[in-house]
């Protein structure tokens, strides 16, 4: 069912989208530069960061957590495993589930580089006060959840 909006509401929404997209691109450049500086593409770095911050993850769930296509996840996991940063481990209780885990090499490397990444991200958001950052997180989560619900209507 279509909801009707005023022209002003639609124009504001389009402007908001463009401002959001430009801000996302600008801030993302910090993370992209970081990943490349450390020899990873942004997707590889995102997988490593997820495992570093959240611990072992089911390979089947990594894609949805990082908004990746499953074929990309397999390729990235294979490459990171070949380079010794992660390994796969089958869940003993569910033979269909396979977890990706950081190796000691992967953990040690992220212990070294993650503080630099976190500092650069803090610098990218330093134009906002702590309260503004908290408010932005809240508003973006709220907008994302609402928008996600609309997709399935």
UniProtKB/TrEMBL annotation:
Keyword vocabulary terms for this entry: DNA-binding, Transcription, Transcription regulation
Q: Which InterPro entries match?
A: HTH_MarR-typ (IPR000835), Tscrpt_reg_MarR-type_CS (IPR023187), WH-like_DNA-bd_sf (IPR036388), WH_DNA-bd_sf (IPR036390)
Q: Is Nucleus tagged as a keyword? A: no
HTH marR-type domain segment(s): 13-145
Decide whether keyword Kinase is in the record: no
**Pfam families per UniProt:** MarR
- SMART domains named in the record: HTH_MARR
The protein in question is named MarR family 2-MHQ and catechol resistance regulon transcriptional repressor
Q: Which organism is it from?
A: Aeribacillus alveayuensis
| Lineage of origin | Bacteria, Bacillati, Bacillota, Bacilli, Bacillales
